[in-house]
From TrEMBL:
The lineage of its organism: Eukaryota, Metazoa, Chordata, Craniata, Vertebrata. Coiled coil: none annotated. It comes from Fundulus heteroclitus (Killifish). Keywords: Acyltransferase, Membrane, Transferase, Transmembrane, Transmembrane helix. It holds the Pfam family DHHC. This is Palmitoyltransferase.
């Protein structure tokens, strides 16, 4: 295994000297730097990735939710003779669907934790006032100072802090700042999928006992086709989003991102309890706001990151 002296590509050191062919002459050291230094100046602005595949997947996601909404309301609930059943299930389903789409929008339009692009300039590195022997890693792809636990996304074309993976369904990376919204999105999609499946089963049983022409405002063949398609959609996304939700919760509890697990990266950060890891993602105080996509979690402004080779 090569020593840090040999692993010196795209590294700046704090001696204030630039030797041709070698920028790394000192052993590897971590440099604690405030989060404010590596937070993108546009973090409060609208974030949107112009990726054709991601945009198409995001549109398909919304269309599938709208299809489920249409079948649940106009095929099953509106024609129902039980007003209480229709109101209760309609309110529950629409609330969960609204929260799912809101979570999807927040996950898609929230900066996942992008490191400022092109900040690895000589002037900027000198402004950090590095001590002799201290080094910083520069991403050769986006020319940014790369903190520990950050990875470069080829789709977003940025280095993302605590990047878990890039999800085309939300057309964004899942990272430090939007992981909460992605977890909520998978949870609410799983819940509306389960709810719609339960209503489909109940509606089939009801229609078998009654006249098919009276249990729906559509023709019997059209009703069956619509219900079967919804059943297939609900079952597929229930399995998919449940697995994603489980893997995300496990990733949060172990404080190890999907990329870190895949690459089996050496753990260089302090180990915390599962409860502390959950609070770091969803917010410092447990409340119903954890379940709200409209609540922005406080990830800790005093948090520091490590710049390493």
């Amino acid at each position: 295994m090569k020593s840090p002296v040999h692993r010196c590509r795209d590294v700046e050191h704090g001696r204030g000297q630039n030797r041709a062919g070698s920028n790394c002459l000192q052993p590897e050291q971590r440099i604690p730097i405030s989060k404010d230094v590596i937070t993108s100046s546009s973090s409060s602005a609208m974030w949107f990735i112009r990726d054709t595949c991601g945009i198409v997947c995001a549109i398909i996601t919304w269309l599938l939710v709208f299809y489920a909404e249409f079948v649940v309301l106009f095929v099953m609930l509106v024609p129902s003779k039980n007003l209480t059943y229709s109101i209760v299930n309609g309110t529950l389903f629409n609330t969960l669907a609204f929260l799912a789409l809101a979570s999807h929008l927040r996950a898609m339009c929230t900066d996942p934790g992008a490191v400022p692009k092109g900040n690895a300039t000589k002037e900027y590195i000198e402004s950090l006032q590095l001590k002799p022997g201290q080094v910083v890693y520069k991403c050769p792809k986006c020319c940014s100072i790369k903190p520990d636990r950050a990875h470069h996304c080829s789709v977003c074309k940025r280095c993302i802090r605590k990047m878990d993976h890039h999800c085309p369904w939300v057309n964004n990376c899942v990272g430090e700042n939007n992981q909460k919204y992605f977890v909520l999105f998978t949870m609410y999609i799983a819940l509306i999928s389960l709810h719609s499946l339960a209503m489909v089963v109940f509606h089939f049983l009801y229609c078998f006992e009654d006249d098919w022409t009276k249990c729906s405002s559509f023709s019997p063949p059209a009703t069956v086709i619509l219900l079967i398609l919804l059943c297939f959609e609900g079952l597929l996304f229930l399995i998919f989003t449940s697995v994603m939700f489980g893997t995300q919760v496990h990733s949060i509890c172990t404080d190890e991102t999907g990329i870190e697990q895949l690459k089996k990266e050496e753990r260089r950060w302090a180990k915390k309890t599962k409860w502390m890891n959950m609070r770091a993602v969803f917010g410092h105080q447990f409340s119903l706001l954890w379940l709200s996509p409209f609540s922005t979690p406080d990830h800790g402004k005093a948090e520091t990151y490590q710049y390493v080779v």
